[in-house]
Automatic annotation (TrEMBL), chain A:
Localization annotation: Cell inner membrane; Cell membrane
Keywords linked to the UniProt accession: Amino-acid transport, Cell membrane, Membrane, Transmembrane, Transmembrane helix, Transport
Pfam families: BPD_transp_1
Similarity-based family: Belongs to the binding-protein-dependent transport system permease family. HisMQ subfamily.
Transmembrane segments annotated in the record for this chain: 12-37, 49-72, 180-200
One Gene Ontology cellular component annotation held by this UniProt entry: ATP-binding cassette (ABC) transporter complex
Protein name listed in UniProt: ABC transporter permease
Membrane topology reported for the UniProt record: Multi-pass membrane protein
InterPro entries per the UniProt record, alphabetical: AA_ABC_transptr_permease_3TM, ArtM/GltK/GlnP/TcyL/YhdX-like, MetI-like, MetI-like_sf
Gene source species: Terasakiispira papahanaumokuakeensis
TrEMBL record, chain B:
GO biological process, one term: amino acid transport
Listed InterPro entries: AA_ABC_transptr_permease_3TM, ArtM/GltK/GlnP/TcyL/YhdX-like, MetI-like, MetI-like_sf
Protein name: ABC transporter permease
Keywords from the UniProt entry: Amino-acid transport, Cell membrane, Membrane, Transmembrane, Transmembrane helix, Transport
Pfam families: BPD_transp_1 (PF00528)
Gene Ontology CC: ATP-binding cassette (ABC) transporter complex
Source species: Terasakiispira papahanaumokuakeensis
Entry's Gene Ontology molecular function annotations: transmembrane transporter activity
Length: 213, 221
């Protein structure tokens, strides 16, 4: 492996990062939406969401990615590789995030909600002004944990031909016939990314503990 | 002939993939759990020289994607002169990766265990190994059961990665059926159903274990 391999590796790392980043953003927001829909307990919808969360948690990412990418054309959708990858990653992480958000909602203190009601807040104002800011803090550790799981699962998008940090090692070793150095380099890059996230999580947890008191 | 008939006709392939996934998963999980227990047991001794290497092993595994570890074992090791078959590379990868996670889960629970009963056990003349097996490990297992259940699901999902290194698992079966007969939707729906089934069974087992723990008075976890 020579110097020309590093730009390729970094490019792969960038692909991993931007696809994971978009999926994380989608997953957090739609996770909150699904959690709220589940809390609203709308008859048929609720059972569908329970089914989705159960399936989403049980389906391996590789299988889901292949499923989406191979099925889309037969449904008449012309799907880009990156789009299929983002869709698979966010479908997976949404199911997990929804549970984190729901846990934060259900554990929210009853006193504060009653106080807000007594002050004449509508339930929407109460949610936006009182609950959401505190829910963000309490669910942050869980959400960051989910983010690192997503990045650890992101190599699955390589099966549909996206050249991410894992697949780039195959490309380099196809030229140099030495697979070990690029894989080790990729491992170091992954550890830097996930180590950074764990570091962020530690900071988030410290803040959460301080604000929770 | 509908697409579902095609999938039904290749049920042997799916069944084989299912058995392969299941055997790989269960053997790896059993070994990983043993490895996790061994690591926690080693860390019991406060003066052990193993502390630093074991802790760094756990941390490295937790920061590495599973597929990268498998790549290291399957594509990387041959340059060091060790050639593994895909199935064995998968088994070893799963064992070490999830062994580290099990160790971390058990260690996290170990920290919350009260010291009094351990001192009492020492006073009664328990040797460290006996105390670990009879006193500490059962409590850790009951307390950590929700986390262990989660980890089992993660391990099941990680087996699908092994399809990339040509292990003939469920995902491989779906992929080859869909490549041969061009019925991707049905093949993958069937396989996702299999994965779902396995994880539902595991969830039920964990809930059953929860009832057992409840009976033994471990309700606060």
């Amino acid at each position: 492996m020579d110097a020309s391999a590093w730009p390729m590796l970094l490019e792969g790392a960038w692909t991993t990062l931007w696809i994971s980043g978009i999926s994380i953003a989608i997953g957090i927001i739609s996770g909150l939406g699904i959690a709220l829909l589940r809390i609203a307990k709308i008859p048929v919808l609720e059972q569908c969401l329970v089914l989705y969360i159960s399936l989403g948690r049980a389906t391996p990412l590789v299988t889901l990615t292949l499923f989406i990418f191979l099925t889309a054309p037969s449904l008449g959708l012309n799907m880009d590789r990156s789009l299929a990858g983002i869709l698979a990653l966010s479908l997976n992480t949404t199911a997990f995030n929804a549970e984190v958000w729901r846990g934060a909602f259900n554990n929210f203190s009853r006193d504060q909600r009653e106080a807000a009601m007594a002050c004449g807040m509508t339930s929407f104002t109460c949610f936006r002004r009182i609950m959401l800011p505190q829910m963000v803090i309490t669910s942050l550790p869980g959400l960051v944990n989910e983010m690192s799981f997503l990045i650890k699962g992101s190599p699955s998008i390589a099966v549909i031909g996206i050249v991410d940090l894992t697949r780039v090692t195959n490309r380099i070793s196809a030229v140099t016939y030495e697979p070990l150095p690029p894989i080790l380099a990729a491992a170091v890059l992954y550890m830097a990314i996930i180590g950074g996230l764990i570091w962020l999580q530690r900071i988030a947890e410290r803040h959460a503990n301080r604000l929770a008191i | 002939m509908t697409n579902w008939d095609i999938v039904w006709d290749s049920r042997d392939l799916l069944w084989q993939g299912f058995l392969n996934t299941l055997s790989l998963f269960s053997v790896a999980i059993a070994l990983a759990f043993l490895l996790g227990c061994l690591i926690v047991y080693r860390l019991e001794d406060p003066k052990t020289r193993w502390r630093l290497p074991l802790r760094s092993f756990i941390d490295i595994m937790r920061m590495l994607p599973f597929l990268v570890l498998v790549y290291l074992l399957y594509y990387g090791l041959p340059s060091a002169g060790i050639r593994l078959e895909a199935w064995w590379a998968g088994l070893i990868g799963l064992t070490f990766y999830h062994g580290a996670y099990f160790a971390e889960i058990l260690r996290g629970c170990r920290v919350t265990l009260s010291n009094g009963q351990i001192e009492a056990a020492y006073a009664h003349g328990f040797t460290p190994s006996r105390m670990f097996i009879r006193l500490i490990l059962p409590q850790l297992m009951i307390q950590a059961r929700p986390l262990i259940g989660n980890q089992l699901v993660y391990a099941l999902k990680d087996t699908a990665f092994l399809f990339i290194i040509t292990v003939k698992d469920l995902t491989w079966a779906a992929n080859s059926i869909s490549a041969t007969y061009f019925v991707p939707t049905e093949a993958f729906v069937a396989v996702i159903g299999f994965y779902w089934l396995i994880s539902l069974v595991m969830e039920m087992a964990i809930r059953y274990a929860g009832r057992f723990g409840h009976k033994r008075g471990f309700d606060h976890v």
